[in-house]
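# step 3/5: fold
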Amino acid sequence: MILGIGTDLCDVRRVERARSRFPVHFDKKILTSQEREEMSTRADKNAYTAKRFAAKEAIYKAFNFSDQNKLVWQDAEILNKGRKGAPVAYLHGNCLTKFNEQLAVGQTGVIHLSITDEYPYVIAYVIIEKISNC
């Protein structure tokens, strides 16, 4: 059963401007420590950050079943399986709590995430689903 669908479009140039104005603060606000560590190995740090920004926005939009005002940037983490692998979403804090509240005994939650880019734009698409394990 689909719990929510979300999408977001982000302009990489907007992230470039924010990162140039607030180089440390912006990254720490948007990215988790593991995301910042992964970003340090990437050539295009602005595109990497824009992809995470769009993915987190899409996840929070898909949380239409809860109060999105209580969700913060650090509650969702987007990492890649390997250097060029598919993006995987991990939830933490209030976001994870709200997600788990939607699951009954015997159900598992899944976040399907797709991110694509064509400079200067990045698009993220999310489907949040719950699956019965019976």
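# step 4/5: annotate
The longest helix spans residues 45-62.
# step 5/5: archive (pending)
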